[in-house]
Amino acid sequence: MAPILTQFGQQMSHLTGVRAIMKDIIETLQSGQSAEFINLSAGNPVILPEVEQLWRDCTADLLASSDYGEVVCRYGSSRGYEPLIDAISTDFNQRYGLSLKPENILITPGSQSLYFLAANSFGGYTTEGQLKEIILPLSPDYTGYGGVSLYPEAVRAYQPTLEVDTAAHRFKYRPDFSQLTITEQTGFVLFSRPCNPTGNVLSDDEVKRIATLAANVPVFIDSAYAPPFPALNFTEMTPVLAPNVVHGISLSKAGLPGERVGIAIGDAATIRILESFQTNLCIHSSRYGQAIAAKAIASGALAEISKTAIRPHYQQKFAVIESTLDETMPDVPWYLHRAEGSIFAWLWLQDLPMDDQAFYQALKQYGVIIVPGSPFFPGLRNDWEHKHQCFRISLTDTAERIEIAIRRLANLTEEVYGQG
Ligand SMILES: Cc1ncc(COP(=O)(O)O)c(C=O)c1O
What we know:
There is one protein chain. By secondary structure, this protein is of the alpha/beta class. It is globular, with a radius of gyration of 21 Å. Helix 3 crosses helix 9 and helix 6 crosses helix 8 (268-282). The longest helix has 28 residues, at 301-328. The protein is built from twelve helices and 16 strands. 39% of the residues lie in helices and 16% in strands. The mean pLDDT is 95. The strands form three sheets. Strands 2, 3, 4, 5, 8, 9, 10 and 11 form an eight-stranded mixed β-sheet that branches. A six-stranded mixed β-sheet has the order 6-7-12-13-16-15. A two-stranded parallel ribbon has the order 1-14. The chain has helices at residues 7-12, 18-29, 49-64, 68-72, 82-96, 111-122, 204-213, 268-282, 287-298, 301-328, 356-365, 399-419; strands at 38-39, 105-108, 124-125, 131-136, 155-157, 161-165, 170-174, 186-192, 219-222, 245-250, 262-265, 334-337, 344-349, 368-369, 371-372, 390-394. The termini are far apart. The structure holds pyridoxal-5'-phosphate (PLP). The site of pyridoxal-5'-phosphate has 14 residues, from helix 6.
């Protein structure tokens, strides 16, 4: 059967951004030679034994408690499971000197859904037919933002400036405040900090400047990698919680992606709008995941394990990529983004004689899969050659295999620049 699709049906039945590449990767891995590939494309976090044990212990506690039936056998509040909301407000109030109340918090089924709720509440067409834009102040950013709006034309991203250390082969993106404009057409602002795919962390000052520029609209800070959990920041950073800021937390990189727990913290009026949208969409997030998260947050164990196990794990992997690139890359203009956070490294091959998709295909011939960078520029309308010269490398494989993969990547780099 081929049902006639609506405009939204068309839009949502297509895979956007990196999901389309993932389809190619899955087909490659299923092609029979999967054992031979080193797959550095994965966004799935590593199962760390200490982290798995924490979730196992919280589950055992839940099973043994009288709350079990209440958690899994009954519907609950759309805002979220009360003990989780209490655990978050207590943690954030103590940690950051805030005075959050339950009405400042919403639990969503994963944080991706939070950005969908926001994108379609504050972005898109108003009842008067005016297009409200979703502003991504620094491109590249999370590829998922390309698919969150029912109106893709609403997403507008800004090209950054580049700080390049040529001798050290390192670089860093900065928001270009000479270009960034927030107008009456802006619906809301959205960015990830630390950033997937680059690992960039906007400085506290940059964030405050963006929040001030956007004083009359919500600013969603996607904190999927931020402290206090999963604390995948390798540089100092503090959550910026201004009145118009909605802080989006995810427990996925803290070892719970299967349970789909996202958390929004923001002003009560904004949270209320998102909560109603969520009630219409799916009633509420799974309560089992929320209940074990409540225990891990209330005891302080999640914040602790984030600092002692999750962060060092990925930081060590990043060090392997850095040292292997430094040792093996040929004398070409290659630049690694500064290691400031996330579970990825971001490599820029300036003046690459082929585009990122062709390099990705060529590297597959060497038995290595990385992710071509071009899908990570959703909403950027400028024709910028840099978009086709970058790659995302996941830190989720073993150190040994990462090292082998980077050596092969260096060989291919030498070959393609030699031919170019
Ligand atoms: C920056 C960023 N935001 C949001 C998400 C979605 O996470 P969740 O599993 O909470 O929906 C991801 C997932 O990789 C991410 O990297």
